[in-house]
Amino acid sequence: MTAISLSIDDLLKDEEYGLDLRMVSGEHGLSHRLYSSRIQKPGLALTGYTEHLHPDRLQVLGNTEISYMLQIPEQQAAASLSKLCSFPISCFIVTKGLDPPPMLRRETEKAGIPLLVTSLQSSTFISLITKFLEERLLPTTHVHGVLTDVLGVGVLLLGKSGIGKSECALDLVIRGHRLVADDVVFIKKKMPAALVGQAAETIQYHMEIRGLGIINIKDLFGVSSIREKKIIDMVLELVEWNPQQEYDRLGIDEKVHTILGIELPHLIIPVRPGRNLTSIIEVAARNYLLKGMGYHSAKEFHEKLMARMEIRPIGAEVE
């Protein structure tokens, strides 16, 4: 998978998170790429100790760092900055709207390292930029399927085209559950181990039903019938019923489906006339919630059955 990255220019263009950044110097470095959501305050690196410097991270300079540069002899500060800027620093950002010292402007311009300023306090900016980078740099993928919110459980329906995924989702919406995405589900990995799914912006709230065409769920059923995004909790795969295949009848052996390195509970639901798939999906969601509370119906039944077999006398008739 190709590594996801952002340019420093992407930070300047942000309008959603209110980073409030402006360019000061080092414009030639706006194409520098960011691959990590972590930031660093250089601290000791300004004194010349660069042992634990991470040049690939955003370097945030607050009141302490700027004050230190202004208080030490200019020659010493220039030497430390020259050494610091010899590393492939991605970007320097000065907080609190402080005016960067001329020597910092000079060295960053010479090294082609972007120097930005924000009016935000250091703590506020670090919180916002971390959320911004985490949102933009997390691994993503997409799958052909339908994502619904059933009783608060994110249920991802998979299966080949035409098997009835959208029809199941529509029936779930009619029963009071919520649609997240139909046809294509975009999935983003959230740390430490969660997958968030949502629809493509162009088809959000829409669903394709063969024979009806494209319908707008939000307009038909109201805002309570849709969600913009949802954590995916389980995967239900719809497959055509095959009389030659043995399907799970106890539910003891649990399968998993892996997306972006995260394992999700995986149920295979055979489809044939007469099976009420919507009810099955609802019960699967309820059963998932029950397991989350520590109750596993299939395992409890199996344990009770085994215990009864152990205490029954040999040769005893089954009641």
Automatic annotation (TrEMBL):
Residues 270-275 are annotated as: Important for the catalytic mechanism of dephosphorylation. Keywords: ATP-binding, Kinase, Magnesium, Metal-binding, Multifunctional enzyme, Nucleotide-binding, Serine/threonine-protein kinase, Transferase. One of its GO terms (biological process) is regulation of carbohydrate metabolic process. Its cofactor is Mg(2+). Mg(2+) binds at S166, E208. The active site is at H144, K165, D183 (proton acceptor), R249. The keyword Metal-binding applies. CDD domains: HprK_C. ATP binds at G159, K160, S161, G162, I163, G164, K165, S166. It comes from the Bacteria. Residues 7-133 form the HPr(Ser) kinase/phosphorylase N-terminal domain. Residues 207-216 are annotated as: Important for the catalytic mechanism of both phosphorylation and dephosphorylation. The keyword Transcription does not apply. Residues 136-304 form the HPr kinase/phosphorylase C-terminal domain. One of its GO terms (molecular function) is phosphorelay sensor kinase activity. PANTHER family: HPR KINASE_PHOSPHORYLASE (PTHR30305:SF1), PROTEIN YJDM-RELATED (PTHR30305). Catalyzes the ATP- as well as the pyrophosphate-dependent phosphorylation of a specific serine residue in HPr, a phosphocarrier protein of the phosphoenolpyruvate-dependent sugar phosphotransferase system (PTS). HprK/P also catalyzes the pyrophosphate-producing, inorganic phosphate-dependent dephosphorylation (phosphorolysis) of seryl-phosphorylated HPr (P-Ser-HPr). Belongs to the HPrK/P family. The Walker A ATP-binding motif also binds Pi and PPi. This is HPr kinase/phosphorylase. It comes from Geoanaerobacter pelophilus.
